[in-house]
Structure formats: structure tokens, C-alpha cells
Amino acid sequence: MSKISDIKAIQVLDSRGVPTVSCSITLDNNITAKSIVPSGASTGTKEALELRDGNKDYLGKGVQNAVNNINTILKPALIGLDPCEQSQLDTIIIEIDGTSDKSSIGANAILAVSLAISHVAAKDKGIELHRHFADIYQNITGSKVESNLPMPMLNILNGGEHADNNIDIQEFMIIPKGAQSFKEAMRWSSEIYQNLKSILKSKKLSTAVGDEGGFAPNLQSNEEAIKLILEAIENSSLIPGKDVFISLDCAASEFFDGENYNLVGEGRSLNPESFANYLEELVDRYPIISIEDGMDENDYEGWRILTEKISAKCQLVGDDLFVTNKTIFQEGIINNLANSILIKFNQIGSITETIETINMANTNDYKSIISHRSGETEDTTIADLAVGLGAGQIKTGAPCRSDRVAKYNRLLWIEEESPELSLSQ
Ligand code: PGA
Ligand code: ZN
User: Fold this and answer.
1) For the whole model, what pTM was predicted?
2) Nearest ligand atom owner, CA of 211
3) Which residue blocks in 126-266 are alpha helix, DSSP H?
């Protein structure tokens, strides 16, 4: 049994050039592994706290305090412990923090350590990280999951907080559901992305990309964005609604004023009932099979209306609504809100709690979608998490920008090296 012999954290940069926490863990047999944590922009208000320095360095966005918390507080508590005991180690760290939102040590510090523990343990066992995650799931929950390759959701057109344009819906994604392999799913998606670029160019629209690699042109309406994507699918000799489907992330908390949903780009202001009707019309008119954060995170009545209206015909995903938090998610399940959950490990701050939340989804018939953040890095842990836990779906941006593509490339290698894994349908 190997033991942790050293832990070292430093400040590195994410895809927006903003500081984030990176952690390296070394074992007494000299095996070492590193992690880097991601960071959101359209964050849910109930997410665990990302500790930022707030001083003059990096315009207040430094994470040196979080880094120091690892090097001076967490390190001495973890030296000598076995990294294979993920939940035991996460529990120790969470208890040291002692707050419900991880505001003392910082969720970014805690997650960096939690991720590095899982990486170094997998290396020590000499197995792929996704297999180690499957083992951890079994250790924590007592039940086995079937690993598979996740169906990707690729965000190819950006609006909202992720782009400087006039589209209100944050993400327009494609789901290459008809693909027979992950490789094929990626080829189709890349072709659609390139065809969308050509269409935008021919219409003299911007082909600059947003934070998640999707294009961010100035368009008249959300519907125009959907139509352009359908055209790009057809130009790729694929059939919308058969080969490829559409998924939206409204990130509706960003345009809800407490009473109405303000579609500024379209000059419309809709109450929750009317906004639910607006979304239902989109679902009826276009091959949209998934909508994330279709209502504000605190608008439970809006969520109730939306779920009642369209949950039979559309996946309804809670991101800001559930923030990967077991307690908040449990309340949502009791109130029958949404039918799926987005999983972002930095919303809750540790691998163990992330797995517990996924287990709650599995036992309550909710689907889990493993997700990146808009501020990402070369860390590809979420690819392995999606595979190991057999989540079935992953959302990690456009087939563009290395911070996004790194995850898809990792999945392409997993598919190549694990022929027994099939693509989740
Ligand atoms: P975020 O966006 O990482 O900026 O929160 C992603 C999402 O809303 O799904
Ligand atoms: Zn979201």
C-alpha cells in the first residue's frame, strides 16, 4: 500500500487566462500526478465557494490563498495516507474545512486535491483513471455501474454570458445520436462545425468563437441560431432529427428578473408560463431533445410548469438548479423538478460528493450529464469520470480550442484502447 509523501499546489491559468489551482501529489514510491480545477462564469448562486484573493494581483482573481491552504493546511493532514481511500480522504478534507460551502479552505483548493488523489491512486494501481472511478463508485455506493462512452453534446453556437452578442440562450448544442461509435460522433460533429463556419462566413457573420469554442455571431433571434445549425447538419449530409439532434442550455437565471424572462435579443419579456410555452414551441418545431436550465434556479414554480409541460418529450436538465449538491438535488427530486442533472465537480468540490450525487440520480431515475466549465484547462478528468461511471452523456464544448478538444481526444483514446466499451445511445 503506497502512501502520500508530498503535496504541492501552485497557481496556473485557465482558458480565459484567469488563475486557477493546480495540485501535484507524490507517493512514497515516487509515483506522481497533477490536477487543475476549472471555473464557471454563469455560476449558480448555491455553488460551493471558489476562493479568490480579491487583492490587486490578477485584478482580484488570484487564487494564492487557496494554493496556500493546500500547501500549509491540507498537506500535513494527508501525508502518510493511502490515496486509494478516496472517500476517507475527501471526508478528512471536508471536515478540516468545516463549512457547508467550503468557504474556509475554498472549493477550488479542495477539488484540486481530491482530483489529484484520484489520479495518483489510479497510477499507483496501474489502471486507467476511468476504471479507478468505477471502483470508487462501487466502494462508495456498494453497487456496480456499467462503464460506457458518453454521447457528446457539443456547444457550437454561443450566446448569453459566454459571448458578446445579442443571443439570450447561452448554448446551442448538437447531439450526434445516430453515430455508431464515439469516433463517428466526433467526425460528424467536426464536419457540422466546419460547415456552420462556412455558412456564417457566406452570410458575412462573425466566426469568432466564445468561451466554449462555439461561434458567437450577432443573430436576430434564438430561432435563427437553431435554423443555422440545422442548415449546417444538412450540409454535412446528415439528417436533423434522425442522425443529429439539438440541445439547449438557456442558463435562464441570467435573464430572469424575479418575475419575467427577458429575451433582450428578441425584445420580449415573458412570464414563467409564457416562457415555458415558448420553449415547448421550440421543442415541437425543431429536433430539440434536451433543455438545460430552462427556468431560473429559484423559480421552482416555473420549473414545475416546465417539467409538467414537456418532461415527457424532452430531457430537462438542472445545472444552476441543482449545483451537483445532494441536498438541493434531493429537494428537487421530491418536488418533481426536471428529469436530469448536470454534474460539475467544482460546484460541490470533491470527487466523493460528486459520485454521491450521481448515485442519487441513478437511484431516482434522473439522467446525469458530466460537464466542463466555461473556464477550462488541459485537465481531462471529466472524460474518465463520464466513462467510468457510465453517465451516458458528456458536455464539453465545441470541437475547437484545446481546452475543449482535450476531453474529446481523451475519449477517442479510451475508445481505441477499450474496445469492449460502447457508445451510450
Ligand atoms: P459555466 O457555464 O461554466 O460558465 O457555469 C456552463 C453551463 O452553464 O453549463
Ligand atoms: Zn448550464
Assistant:
1) 0.97
2) 1
3) 129-141, 182-202, 222-235
